[in-house]
Specification:
There is one protein chain. This protein is an alpha+beta fold. 33% of the residues lie in helices and 21% in strands. It has a 7-stranded antiparallel β-sheet, with helices on both faces. α6 runs antiparallel to α8. The two termini are 25 Å apart. The mean pLDDT is 95.
């Protein structure tokens, strides 16, 4: 997405793939300690066999490493319910630039002693140290999971559905995703996936996770009656069995794949105030006109995170010029973030100033100089290129 883990010039690649052991798991506290090269999906299977789940889940789970997830502060599909890795990671073991090992691999939920050093490395994209082991808090596995897929007549209704959803589903709400009609057309056209509801301008996927199936179904049914009755939702379908749940999630999770088959893709991952999240898509459609093949918006509405994608037949410098810095300036104007969950890497390091003040940039440069004076850790990444 941003080239954070991609060698660009003269880097040496360091792989942690062989560091793939679970060190310990405590079935009372749900705390997992493992090496950084463990694959997220394999950790998920490991803790699910013990009636727990990983606090994060993302499309790349079959190949991504937990160390990389932590180094990039990956967000993903469970963020709404379980929060960010900044809260669920309890401790880290990190190798510093000088080769010394910083062992902060604590398994304590509470530890208020001095500076919280692990936070420096979460989201640092490997520029301050190499994460070698992780201690992470895993929530209990929900006994009942339901997914509703709904069609909404407009974005205002999507927002009202979200408000109603939070009020009526409360503690069992675990995901609230949205996608526009063009996303649905693309997954239909390129992947042959059919919409389970009648054609709508917007679609919403809601997931609930709770401890009692009957209780959750009751809450979900009264929520669906409310939104259908008030016209916020025009059509909907509900899945309770694993096969149908996976089928509904595929409509949302495979949008990226469908876009990649549509031509050259320009991707943006921004955080915006929830009520303005789709305005950027509408503005860009008007701005780009026939220059773009598709301008689509989808993402984690519950977190105010928009995935904005523009496709064209081939790369075009003039299209890129119409997109940047316009998208970043628009986002900064709303006090949003130019990178909600994918980090800065190589491609976005020079737009950090749209989301952070000069004093913050200066402090980041000072931390980098202190921890990595020779600039050997993931060079050319994350921080703006110095003039």
């Amino acid at each position: 997405m941003v080239g954070g883990s991609v060698p660009v010039f003269d880097e040496i690649i360091l792989s942690t793939a062989l560091m793939n052991q679970v060190i310990s798991f405590h079935s009372v506290s749900g705390i997992l300690v493992c090496q950084a090269g463990c694959i997220l999906e394999e950790l998920s299977q490991y803790v699910e066999e013990r009636d727990f789940i990983m606090p994060l889940d993302l499309g790349a789970k079959g190949s991504c490493h937990i160390g990389g997830n932590v180094a990039t502060n990956a967000g993903g599909l469970r963020f709404l319910r379980y929060g960010s890795l900044r809260g669920t990671v309890l401790g880290l073991e990190v190798v510093l630039a000088d080769g010394s090992v910083l062992n902060c691999l604590t398994s304590l939920r509470k530890d208020n002693t001095g500076y919280d050093l692990k936070q420096l490395f979460i989201g640092s994209e490997g520029t301050l140290g190499v994460i070698t082991a992780v201690s992470i808090f895993c929530p209990p596995k929900p006994r009942a999971v339901n997914v509703a897929f709904l069609g909404c007549p407009g974005f205002a209704e999507v927002l009202q559905t979200f408000s109603t959803c939070k009020g009526m589903l409360g503690e069992i709400l675990s995901a609230f995703e949205f996608m526009d009609a063009e996303c649905m057309q693309l997954v239909g056209h390129h992947l042959g996936l059919a919409s389970p509801v009648q054609e709508s301008p917007f679609y919403v996927l809601i997931e609930t996770s709770g401890s009692r199936a009957g209780h959750d179904a009751e809450k979900l049914t009264s929520f669906l009656e409310q939104v259908l009755g008030s016209g916020l939702v025009t059509d909907g379908t509900l899945a309770t069995d694993q096969r149908r749940i996976k089928m509904l999630w595929a409509l949302r999770e495979r949008i990226t794949e469908a876009l990649s088959r549509d031509g050259c893709v320009y991707k943006y991952d921004v955080s915006l105030p929830v009520e303005r999240i789709y305005d950027l898509v509408s503005d860009l459609r008007a701005r780009l006109g026939p220059q773009a093949k598709h301008v689509v918006g989808y993402g984690h509405l519950g977190d105010g995170n928009l995935h904005l994608n523009v496709t064209a037949e081939a790369f075009s410098a003039s299209l890129l010029g119409a997109l940047e810095p316009y998208v970043y300036e628009w986002t900064a104007g709303q006090r949003g973030s130019v990178s909600a969950e994918h980090g800065l890497g190589f491609k976005k390091r020079d737009v950090l100033g749209y989301s952070k003040p000069p004093a913050a940039l200066q402090l980041m440069q000072q931390l980098k100089a202190l921890l990595d004076p020779k600039g050997i850790l993931n060079p050319y990444k994350t921080l703006p290129a110095r003039a």
